[in-house]
Amino acid sequence: MSEPALTAHEALAWIDTTASKWRGLLTAHPEILLLPCDINRTSTVAELLQHIVAVELRYAERLLGMPETDYTSVPFDSVDAIYATHDRAMQLYRQALDSGLNWDQKIEFATRSMGQLKASPKTILFHAIFHGIRHYAQLGTLIRQHGHKTDWPGDYLFMGASR
């Protein structure tokens, strides 16, 4: 008997779908970017979104052995700029999945908050995906507190459920 498994492609589809929904909402309501936010040492929603996409991009670059983009250079002045970074990260993750990368061989890398670490590319990939999902869930709560709401369910169930 085999155990059910979530593939990397399925997890990437979830974060990409989630980001697409947020992109649509924020394009319709760009004022949300200016809402105050104290999640992960940010002061606005735009800064939280910068954090989400910067983490996506920097981990994708690490997986491919590329130089990491400087966190502070990741733009967050518009919805288009934020999600251009997300799109680039998704492109790099797909490239990594199509490469001959050893997903279990630990690599060493530096983080902004925890210093030097070692982890497998598999761990890094799933961390980056679930990191974004977690922060988008926090963002959903935050915008509801300011009178906005999402019009889609964020749960993974809805990636495959039907009526």
**Most strands sheet:** 2 strands, antiparallel
Helix content: 40-55%
Give the H and E element order. Answer: HHHEEH
CATH topology group: Four Helix Bundle (Hemerythrin (Met), subunit A)
Number of domains: 1
Detailed description of the structure:
By secondary structure, the protein is mainly alpha-helical. It has four helices and two strands; from the N terminus they run αααββα. A two-stranded antiparallel sheet has the order 1-2. A hairpin with a 3-residue loop joins strand 1 and strand 2. The protein is globular.
Secondary structure layout:
Blueprint: H1 8-28, H2 45-63, H3 79-98, E1 107-111, E2 115-119, H4 121-145
Antiparallel strand pairs: 1-2
Helix pairs in contact: 1-3, 1-4, 2-3, 2-4
In short:
The chain is mainly α.
Features:
163 residues; mainly alpha; Four Helix Bundle (Hemerythrin (Met), subunit A); two-stranded antiparallel sheet; 4 helices; 2 strands; 52% helix; 6% strand
